[in-house]
Each structure stands twice: as structure tokens, then as C-alpha cells.
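tool_call: predict_structure(chain=1)
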Amino acid sequence: MVKFLRLTCLWFLLGAAPAWALLPPKVVVPPCETVQGITADGDSETDVIIGCWNIEWFPGRNPRRSEEHLARLQIKGVQKILAGQNPTIMFACEVRSLADLKKLRAGYPYLACTDIPRTADDDTGLPNQGLAILSRRPWHEIWALDFHELPAAPNRPARGILGVEFTLPDGKPLTVYVVHLKSNFGDPAANRAKRESAIAYLEWDWQRRGLDPARDHLVVLGDFNTSVHDPIFDREQSLRRLLALGFTNAADGLSADRRVTIPANNEGYPDNDFDHLLVSKSLRALLLTPPPWAGIVPVHYTVSDHYPLFVNVSAWFKK
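tool_result:
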């Protein structure tokens, strides 16, 4: 109890208000589609694999111009990864629209992609950076937290958060949250505050839905744009907050070179592990073995500047 109070006080002092004190964001249903003519065969799969990936301004990789040959090259590259890894449910960041997601033609019957307007302080000339899902299993409910109408402030979170609830074979819900936290472009202190506020809003949504990470089946995944291994982020509490609440990183135990999800580039950024898949206590117990559970797959730079990660979660879906 004392530890919990200390963490809560720390969280408040760092500028991320407790869930009960936050101005509510819009809660919306993102654009969704059930693709006709595709059999939902998720229940028949031997392995259930969840993947997550920032696919870098899909399709095309360049937010400032659209070149058809680059879009085609990226689409083919993503299709190859999906065919090789065969995820049952794939979550993605930086997808421009549901219509663009459908260009993958990857055989998934259930598709969704957020469409959250950019704010004036986030360059309105850029396209949508949607949070997306491709699934062979139907979801029970899907929603998004839309931050764009929150009052302008140094710690207003970027974009939004996608939430998806599935029903496990035992009837219990599995709730997955997809995040794409503020990038590291701009002022470091403001970026950190925006990421920490996004996690506070994640907790707000747990409270709204009656969820408890100590008890319920929760997954938080996506591009966090931060790492607990990089000393640049030593002061940041966004990812540390979730770990303090009992979440386990699926990449725990991987060596430094094997947990890289965004390789060094010509802009001076070093290798880093910005993309994470975190599981709550109850889900960790079901996996039986200790981490690492994640496999990170390197991809060519023409496909994305991030690498995808995949986790076999078949133990969660056993009947």
C-alpha cells in the first residue's frame, strides 16, 4: 500500500494527473470493416500469434509526397513479413487510412484504422498516423481515445489510443491497447510530458471500463518512442509506470542487439528498442515460461524504419 501511494504521488509530481483528475477525451469507434469472402479461421489455427509494428507512413514511407512505386514496394514488403510470420492478430502504427490498410490484401477479415485529426501544434500538413488492426478473430468491442480536442497544453498527448476487446475461450475478456506515443522530435521535456500524459489517459480508460491491471487480462503494445535501457530516458516514467503496475515486457531477457526495434539511421539516432508488447500479471501467469516471449524480425529500410515484433500467445486461447 505504501509503495502504491509513493508511485501515485510520484506520478502526480511528474505532471501526469491521476485518472480521476483528467479532462475526458472523446471516445470514438474507429473506421472498421469486415471483408466479405474471407473465412475467419482464427479458431482453427494451431498457434495464435500477436504482432505489432510501426510501418512508417504506410503506404509509401514518405509523409510529404506520394510515389506509387515506393508504396507498391512497401506493400509487397509488408505482405512478405505477414506471410512469413503468419500473425493471427496484427497491430500497426502509422497507417494512413482504412482504405490504405485494405491495400495489403493479406487475408484478414476484420480490419480497423483510427482517423484522428492532427492538432495545430502537430503539423496539420502531415497525413493521418492511424493505429490499425488486422485480425482473423472477431473482436467483441473496439474504440479509440481521441486526444485532438483536448485543450492545447505542453503535455497534451499526441494522436490517440486504440482499444480492442476480444473474448477468450473461457469467456474472459482480453483487452489490448495500441499506442503510438509522442516522437522525440522537438523539446525533450515536452515530449516526455506528452508520453506520460498518454499513459495517464490509458489508466483513465481502465477506470472508465472497470479494469484493473493487477487482476484483468490486459496487453499494451505499440511504438512507445522511449526505452528503459537508454540513459536519455532515465527521467521518463511512461514505460516505467506500466512496469511498476505489474506489466512484463515480452522482450525481457533478450540481449541488447536482439531487442532492437528501430535501427540506427543517418540522422544520428542509435539503435534502440522503442516498440514494446507488455502483458499484465494474469496473462504472464498463463504463458508459464519466463520471458523473453517476443521475436523481433529485421526488415529492409524500404519497408519500414521499425522492426516488427511477434509473440506466440496460444496459451491464452486454449479451450
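agent: Residues 1-14 have pLDDT under 50 and may be disordered. Proceeding to next step.
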